[in-house]
Amino acid sequence: MIIMSSNILSGVDTVLDVGQSWITINALIWLWAFGFCHLLFMNTSDSEEDSYNERSALVQCESPTIPSYHQDHDMSLPQETDTKRGRPVSSGLDEPGLVERERAATPDGEEEELTLKYGAKHVIMLFIPVTLCMVVVVATIKSVSFYTEKTSQQLIYTPFKEDPNSVGQRLLYSLLNTIVMISVIVVMTIILVVLYKYRCYKFIHGWLILSSLMLLFWFSFMYLGEVFKTYNVAMDYPTLAMIIWNFGVVGMICIHWKGPLRLQQAYLIVISALMALIFIKYLPEWSAWVILAAISIYDLIAVLCPKGPLRMLVETAQERNEPIFPALIYSSAMVWMVGMADSNNPDSADERQRNEGGALAQEGVESEDDVALGGRRRCSAEEDLEEDRGVKLGLGDFIFYSVLVGKAAANGGDWNTTLACFVAILIGLCLTLLLLAIFKKALPALPISITFGLVFYFSTDNLVRPFMDSLAAHQYYI
Amino acid sequence: MNLERIPNEEKLSLCRRYYLGGFAFLPFLWLVNVLWFFREAFLKPTYTEQLQIKSYVKKSALGLIVWVAVLTTWITIFQHFRAQWGEVGDYLSFTIPLGTA
Prior knowledge:
The structure holds two protein chains of two kinds. In chain A, helix 4 crosses helix 6. In chain A, a hairpin with a 5-residue loop joins strand 1 and strand 2. Chain A contains 16 helices and ten strands. The longest helix of chain A is centred in the first third of the chain and has 36 residues. Chain A is mostly helical. The longest helix of chain B has 32 residues. The N and C termini of chain B lie far apart (49 Å). In chain B, helix 1 packs antiparallel against helix 2, helix 1 runs parallel beside helix 3 and helix 2 packs antiparallel against helix 3. Chains A and B meet through helix 8, strand 3, helix 9 and helix 10 of A and helix 2, helix 3 and strand 1 of B. Chain B: This is Gamma-secretase subunit PEN-2. Chain B: It is found in: Golgi apparatus, Golgi stack membrane. Chain B: It holds the Pfam family PEN-2. Chain B: It comes from Cyprinus carpio.
């Protein structure tokens, strides 16, 4: 009894492994399905702001409303005024009715200025959670070896095993894996769009809840187990059960119901990090890079092309004037609907309220833009609606950014590369937000950041690192 | 969710639900309740529901302290006596540290 295996579950390992992959698969399904949930149309309440598609869009849901937006351009929307108060750029797609109701005149020039001013603050508001998520992932990768140990087990989405001996075969298999993964994602997105079109809201809600249950309980259980093993800490089942139970239940409450904003944001960051860690562990080496690239391209297509599933989802939601499930969306601004007394569309109001409840509860972590900010836009008297716009970024984006940086940290463990990727992603995010402010429509957040990240990773790994190493070896300081 | 923006009745109901929820072995929920509603209960000018919110916050804090005491005691006992308990100790353990007796 003096020296025992640290893993008392050794016999159960294989079972856990299988269980893990099963669970991962399910988690993926959820995430993917929701990944594509755009916040674009968060709902009238947020519609004005930038809602981001889970995966990618820094979206200012605007497409359908653009015509009305321009028409009523003079009536400047409270958005502009809000912007003045530091509110998020409200570009959004607001329900047309709502937009018309809330117009305040503002000159164009001011609008432009306000838009940009508003942009900087929101960039910072997104930088912080993205950075935190990456920090968590990198810290875990560096300290807990579990996530860098390659297992023979792979996700069902990447069925081809890469053979490290043959470059050609490896390349081919990673391409095949990517194709499988992307098709799974496309299929799931289409299923989601179809479900949404046919108003199977309960089903989608249930899916979402199940997936977050899995993330909050099972993955965090695995994570804790690995951390305890790494730090050689004895932990008993009762205490562990209490910890996981508390963490999971409070997480579910915060994410799906009502909870303090900061806690909600923290939970979203944590689940993104957990998911990213799972990806880092279970995606084969080369496949992961190719998948990252492919996802960015897919994102670009899905969000911007007229026939893209995400775009269709957004448009459907806009037609119905209802918010898309703010599932897995991190929002830096609080969207708060205090009773919708919408005389124009009572149905949508009800729906919105229903969805709002869901929205608030959901991953849409809405943070109060600035509590001190006095100005909350008020709708016309008919609607007792308060909105605070903010910037929203899909959790899928968090996850992929973290996967990229995590893999950079895992391979070789060189800090130069990791930092370079981190900076690249932030630059990409900045540029995307800038484009968002300019174009005022839903934009995919992945392509620019991931492209920069990949470019920086491969160039730093292959050019800068050897250079720095030989400089250090020759003690030559520049 | 911003507490500023919801009416007092809802605040009360939220506080109450968090308080009741904490009885399901959820001291963390009580902690969140205390931290979140602390300002509402004690630092804001009085309003009708504030008294009740205060009571809930106090009760949550009490429950929290009790739980913390219980858990701390158990953890201390476990960590100290785990090795001596032999089989029971192993049975209760999720992870066992390497290289200790």
